[in-house]
Design goal:
By secondary structure, the protein is of the alpha+beta class. The protein is built from two helices and four strands, in the order E-E-H-E-H-E. It has a four-stranded mixed beta sheet with strand order 3-1-2-4. The radius of gyration is 12 Å and the shape is globular.
């Protein structure tokens, strides 16, 4: 049985940045109002990050 991990992706189009991280990051960023928050599986996260890189976004991984 596979355990599917959820990742949180936060996109701030005003700054052109995208942050992703684990559950701790999800808890911390949950109340953000300046961007969009998405819950993704690993394969969805990889696809979204490739798309954002092609559009010129800076990508940052947050561990906390």
């Amino acid at each position: 049985m596979k355990i599917r991990k959820q990742y949180t992706l936060f996109i701030n189009p005003m700054l052109g940045t995208a942050f992703f991280g684990n559950n701790k990051f999800s808890t911390r960023i949950n109340e953000a109002t300046l961007g969009e928050i998405y819950d993704c599986t690993f394969s969805e996260l990889k696809q979204n990050l490739k798309m954002l890189l092609n559009r010129g976004y800076r990508i940052l991984k947050m561990n906390y």
